[in-house]
Amino acid sequence: MSSINNTRSINDIVADVLGQAVALVRDELKLARAEVEEKATRARSALVLLVIGAVVLLDATLVILGAIVFAIAAHGLSLAVSAAIVGVVALVVGTILVMQGIAGLKPEKFKLEKTTEQLRRDMALVRREAHST
Q1: Residues 128, 12: contact at Cβ < 8 Å?
Q2: How far apart are CA 14 and CA 133, in angstroms?
Q3: 4 falls within a domain
Q4: Contact (Cβ atoms closer than 8 angstroms) between residue 9 and residue 132
Q5: Domain that holds residue 102
């Protein structure tokens, strides 16, 4: 009596597992690329804020702060003291803007969390599949 052998050879199973692993890696690379592009967009936005903040600081310093120095001096302080007061205030405001831009560029904001977690799951799946064959 002839029986139909429905079992696959180990080579076929290994080839299938490897093929699936390659496809999985390919998909994970696509995911990583998408995540990197998302992080790059965030970095560009943070850099734009940083540049805009710097330009605003410069313009404000040249136009408004000069007038404030004279306004303070008109109340009896010397021009030097008035300029020092205004300079300190401008320094504080500028520092806050720059710090906000830098905060948007911290390395932890650019970790590939989704891709890393998915790769961990995929590696565990590949290991289970490899051990079960």
Answers
A1: no
A2: 8
A3: no
A4: no
A5: 10-132
